[in-house]
Design brief:
Blueprint: H1 15-34, E1 38-39, E2 45-47, H2 48-52, H3 57-62, E3 64-67, E4 74-77, H4 82-93, E5 99-106, E6 122-129, H5 134-150, E7 156-162, H6 163-173, H7 180-188, H8 191-197, H9 203-213, E8 216-217, H10 220-229, H11 235-252, E9 258-262, E10 275-281, E11 289-293, E12 307-313, H12 314-320, E13 330-334, H13 339-350, E14 355-358, E15 367-374, E16 377-382
Parallel strand pairs: 1-5, 7-9, 13-14, 13-15
Antiparallel strand pairs: 2-4, 3-4, 5-6, 6-12, 7-10, 8-9, 10-11, 11-12, 15-16
Length: 388
């Protein structure tokens, strides 16, 4: 057995990347704090019924389950922190009016969500509760954009949709929203499979669902949707209005992003209830962030609340962004016992400097300065070509 091997799609994070990841985590949490978001730490494990009830099969399949040795009940290791934060807002925090919560923590997946994804992503996100208006959606998307800017991501494409379009069309067509064949064909945008799934449906239903599958592209997609469904499926117009309001607000705020409208995007429909969005870096196939509105989730925890938010994976941000953590360097100190030297080292560390003892009479590679004794005074100077 090769004891050094790790499970597939599970990786360790070595010092250089870990330092950048921690710096980015702190920068993002500081960003959210400045926007008024309060930090919470949900537990790594919960009873599986609490963690998964009402959230659909996708999250269930991603979740590792173990037996609690204390109670014999099944525990789930979180695969997504967002439902946990919804539980905190609904059951534990109980703040009236608008509440803003943020978090950062490791999650675990039974299988990678995409070919290049990790099974143990470090999820960071922000959630806004108590406001069902477009203004809440706009704030969350603006914060997402700032998150990606902080992470060094340059040109952005924002993929935006609204599950209300899908829901209204299915309701008008009399199709069960849980129809797996239709749902799967739409999700994969497979015209042949959709035709097979709809072969016993009316001609009108076939036309509607085929039109829905093709409603993706530039901003003109919204007008095509109005023309296709504006009069026959009234619920579609309200969803399109919301998308247009959000795009107009973000564009007027000076955010230079490309828009991609996808009204047939069905990700997260197990709990999303309105606007949904994903952010991509130019030229990358894997989403940097996903989010949307999920007004109904808190109800299973005792308090139904309007909710919207987003989540990112720190590992993906570091891989696709251009984040550069500050590199203050370090100070090398002789491995000596000296009272004045120890006082200086203690003060330097208290001021935030990295001070590393020169064991084996060698400078650590991170050091760009050294402490030397000059005229009986311990002095800091740049490291030259001399040795300790």
């Amino acid at each position: 057995m090769k004891y050094w091997q790790l499970p597939q799609a599970v990786e360790e994070v070595l010092p250089k990347q870990a330092s950048a990841m921690e710096a980015l985590r702190r920068d993002l949490l500081d960003l959210y704090k400045r926007w008024g978001y309060e930090l919470v730490f949900p537990p790594l494990i919960e009873y599986s019924e609490s963690l998964l009830t009402g959230l659909g099969a996708d999250l269930d399949l991603l979740t590792f389950k173990i037996t609690d040795q204390l109670t014999g009940r099944t525990l789930g290791i979180r695969a997504d922190i967002t439902p946990q934060v919804a539980r905190i807002d609904a059951h534990s925090y109980l703040k009236q009016g608008v509440s803003r919560l943020c978090y950062a923590g490791t999650t675990l997946h039974t299988h990678p969500k995409s070919l290049m994804a990790s099974r143990c992503p470090v999820q960071v996100g922000a959630e806004l509760y108590g406001d069902s208006s477009e203004q809440a959606d706009i704030e969350i998307i603006r914060l997402l954009i700032e998150t990606l800017r902080t992470s060094g991501v340059g040109a952005l494409t924002l993929d935006i949709g609204h599950v209300g379009v899908y829901q209204a069309i299915f309701a008008a067509a009399g199709i069960d929203r849980e129809d797996a064949d239709v749902f799967d064909a739409l999700q994969r945008k497979s015209a042949p499979d959709l035709a097979v799934a709809l072969r016993d449906k009316s001609e009108q239903t076939q036309q509607w669902l085929t039109a829905l599958m093709n409603l993706h592209g530039g901003l003109d997609t919204l007008e095509r949707a109005r023309q296709a469904f504006g009069s026959s499926v009234p619920g579609v117009s309200g969803a399109i209005d919301q998308i247009e309001t959000v795009i107009a607000a973000l564009s007027s705020a000076g955010h230079d992003i490309d828009w991609y409208v996808d009204l047939a995007e069905l990700r997260g429909l197990n709990y999303h209830t309105g606007l949904v969005f994903a952010a991509y870096a130019k030229g990358a196939g894997q989403a940097l962030a996903n989010g949307g509105r999920y007004d109904s989730v808190g109800e299973i925890y005792g308090r139904a609340r309007a909710a919207t938010g987003f989540a990112v994976d720190l590992k993906t941000l570091l891989a696709q962004g251009n984040y550069r953590a500050g590199a203050p360097g370090a100070i090398s100190v002789p491995a000596l016992i000296d009272t004045q030297l120890e006082t200086l080292v203690t003060d330097l560390r208290a001021d935030g400097h990295i001070v590393i003892r020169a064991l084996l009479n060698e400078h650590d590679e991170r050091c760009d300065r050294e402490i030397v004794l000059i005229d009986d005074v311990w002095t800091i100077r740049p490291i030259g070509k001399t040795t300790v």
